[in-house]
């Protein structure tokens, strides 16, 4: 076996708020749903009882959108779903999806996963606002949908739990690691990071969670910040970019438009 040397070059921290433009449903356990009569409940933090956005849901949705965007073949079964995962080193070298999000354990190629996505908690202000509104359930609304039998025309009502529109979750954090070493083309790091930003743009035009084709899950990214840590002085975090919702009606698009400048600032920190 060849001994490979891989070294952490630095990390980019992408921090932002997620604002719901329509109701948000990310499913949780259906345990005890008969009490409230809700067919589909949302996932909640066990300590606070507040809905939250799991990092796995955010990460998986962005990966799925980028797989479709890049035309990556769906070739690997993971549980009940099929995803794209590179099988050979040649495939990996040509796949930004696998370089950013990683590969499954049965792949012949291997490299550190670059992207970490944290769980995102409901903001304190949104929690206070929803408490004051006395919503149908704690912090959530109940949306009733009716399915019509195409033969008998009988109505079959269903109740779905959603986080109301206008709720903010933050601070969302995505950590993008940069590596250098044997078999790693670190010169493409910023291309990979921009690919991730494309995935977030796709998310804003799509939906997060379930029931998206029926109106739920439209979100917007606000108050975006980019910070960098270099392995040379990892105890110091350098702010390289920030744009708030008050400064721009499209903060993510503004970040992408200024990407060349952001790249220069990140490179200065990593090479300084």
Explain what the structure shows.
By secondary structure, the protein is of the alpha+beta class. It has one domain (6-271). Helix content is 27%, strand content 28%. Strands 5-9-1-10-11 form a five-stranded antiparallel β-sheet. Strands 2-6 form a two-stranded antiparallel sheet. Strand 7 (141-148) and strand 8 (155-162) form a beta hairpin. Helix 1 (55-70) crosses helix 5 (189-204). The longest helix is centred in the first third of the chain and has 16 residues, at 55-70.
Strand ordering within the main sheet: 5-9-1-10-11
Radius of gyration from the CA trace? 21 Å
Structural class: alpha+beta
Helical run tally: 7
What fraction strand? 25-35%
Largest sheet: 5 strands, antiparallel
Unreliable spans: none
How many structural units, i.e. domains?
A: 1
Taken from the alpha-carbon principal axes, the silhouette is globular
Query: What series of H and E elements makes up the topology?
Result: EEHEEHHEEHEEEHEEHH
Binned, the helix content reads: 25-40%
SS elements, strand count:
11
